[in-house]
Amino acid sequence: MLRDENESVELAGSTVFKDERKQAYLNPAGADRPLISPVPAATLDRARRYRLERLRMKMREWDCGALLLYDPVNIRYAFDSSNMSIWTMHNPSRYALILADGPAIIFEFEGAEHVNDGLPGIDEIRPSKSWIFFTAGNLVEPRLKAWADEITDIAKGNGANRRIAVDRLEPSGAFELTERGFTLLDGQELAERARSIKSAEEIELMRWTIRVCEAGMARMYEVSEPGRTEREIWAELHFENARSGGEWLETKLLTAGPRTNPWYQECSDYVIKRGEMISFDTDMIGPYGYCADLSRSWTSGHVAMNAKQKELYAAARDQIEHNLSVIRPGMTFREFNELSWQIPEKYQPYRYTLALHGTGMADEWPGVLLHPDFDPDFSGIIEEYMVLNVESLIAEAGSESIKLETQALITSKGAERLDSFPWEDI
């Protein structure tokens, strides 16, 4: 079915064009050069101090004497300290301990202490005590006890209470801390609630990450020609992000034609045909560790959409624009759900489950489900200075999928888009 529709597009002699609006997002200094951030160092330092104070504010609210962080995203938020982030996501070998009324300590991977030089929030650098099986083997138990003894001594020496929030910890580590009299709290909730409210400086950093992402998207658009593979197009975003100071992509969500439906297939060596829809989700962790989470869909060969593609794309735009328009600070998640765009029944089996989600240094709380999936007991309030992503995925039986997503700052007046990469003309 798709092939017949694509062939009819070619036979009709549909307009072939390069969208000059998208070309404007390429680096004006030249395609052979990275983008250089104009953000002053003072802005970054103010963001660093704000973020650490946000964590300590939440610790005081929770009557929490210490916060133990293993998640590299939370460590980056607290200290702007980054070291082998992807590797340490699955090899927890560096961690941070923040005292509510005491020092903030980074426990660094041996030999890498210098990566923390000059970071204003760190009071002390210590060598980490790794007790994961990969490095400890048969010595896990004594190393684990030495680790727990050190955490206990620091907390006791600084007069901290025995309530410690932990974001990620293996069961044996949790057991050792409770054996020493600690009450463990959910440090991931504490951190994500702290991270949910952005400072003006954070928004400035996020705008730059989005600028880099949109330059990568413009590169993707330029190479979206028949005969390219999905991986070739996806690589353009990696390239722009890496050379402009970014970090990684969380997913590989770029597919074309029949591979767009069902969604969540990863990019492959599929060779894209003329007129097929290319749909993607950037999920990009860019400069300064912030996330640019944007989705777009367009046709291969830059040809006009066929009738079905236009119908689906128009529905996706309706969902995005409607949900942007109803967001207000102070409204509950339930109130948003009641006012949100109601997805037609024929699209529901192919829907994206999220209507909104928070974004900062990664996708974060809150994750507000689409109305067919929303639980009325899911509580929370949309607040000013949150950054929320508004999502849409539209498809039906036998069709391609249209994926659109925009990133917005919540202001006193509503949702202000942070991205501006053009939608398609249909």
Automatic annotation (TrEMBL):
<dbReference type="InterPro" id="IPR029149">
    <property type="entry name" value="Creatin/AminoP/Spt16_N"/>
</dbReference>
<dbReference type="InterPro" id="IPR000994">
    <property type="entry name" value="Pept_M24"/>
</dbReference>
<dbReference type="InterPro" id="IPR036005">
    <property type="entry name" value="Creatinase/aminopeptidase-like"/>
</dbReference>
<protein>
    <submittedName>
        <fullName>Peptidase M24</fullName>
    </submittedName>
</protein>
<feature type="domain" description="Peptidase M24">
    <location>
        <begin position="204"/>
        <end position="411"/>
    </location>
</feature>
<dbReference type="Pfam" id="PF00557">
    <property type="entry name" value="Peptidase_M24"/>
</dbReference>
<dbReference type="InterPro" id="IPR050659">
    <property type="entry name" value="Peptidase_M24B"/>
</dbReference>
<keyword id="KW-0614">Plasmid</keyword>
